[in-house]
Design a protein that fits this description.
Layout: H1 9-21, H2 25-37, H3 44-56, H4 60-72, H5 79-91, H6 95-107, H7 114-126, H8 130-144
């Protein structure tokens, strides 16, 4: 029975996000692949939902693959996309990878916000890298005060 409602990019992104919240990775990817087969082109929200889902499942390599796929398809990451990876790397104690992503933000012309700085500072402190955290805090202070 048809309801007359046609799924769009927003509804697909919401569905993907919901599957990941329930740790249903295969179903999320099935929706993503089906969306593409129907000619619905993923946007930054869709890709970010995938990245966030993979990060929440501890699959940082997959999250990074999605990030790289997004850029290769000509979809420009936004600050939220970068922050997802930084947060994921910090949670997995992969601070050098988080710093690499953080450094990549400024090369794109996007400015990190207080939340992005805070995430990296927190990650550094949790690994006992207080000197680096202090440098980040001073940089943040100069930027935002």
């Amino acid at each position: 029975m048809s309801t007359g409602c046609t799924p769009n990019i927003r509804s697909y992104s919401i569905l993907i996000n919901g599957y990941f919240k329930k740790q249903k990775v295969d179903e999320a990817m099935e929706v993503f692949n089906g969306m593409e087969q129907l000619g619905i082109r993923p946007n930054v929200v869709t890709y970010s939902s995938l990245m966030d889902g993979y990060c929440s499942c501890g699959q940082l390599d997959k999250a990074r693959e999605v990030f790289d796929l997004m850029t290769s398809k000509g979809c420009t990451p936004n600050l939220h996309s970068y922050s997802i990876l930084i947060n994921g790397y910090c949670k997995m104690q992969m601070i050098d990878e988080a710093k690499e992503v953080f450094d990549g933000i400024s090369r794109t012309g996007i400015s990190p916000d207080v939340v992005t700085y805070g995430t990296l500072v927190d990650g550094l402190l949790k690994l006992g890298r207080a000197d680096e955290a202090l440098v980040m805090l001073k940089t943040m202070e100069q930027k935002f005060l």
